[in-house]
Amino acid sequence: MTPATGTPAPAPLLIACALGIERLALRGGLGGAAGPVTVLRTGMGPQAADRAVAQALAGDPAMREAAVIATGFCAGLAPGMHPGDLVVADETRDRTGRTECVGVEFLAKELARAVTGSVIHTGPLVGSDHVVRGAERADLHAAGALAVDMESAATLRSAVRAGSRPVAAVRVVVDAPEHELVRIGTLRGGISAFRVLRTVLPAFFEWHRSLLLPRR
Question: Hey, which of 30, 42, 60, 167 has its CA 20 to 30 A from 71?
Answer without folding.
Answer: 60
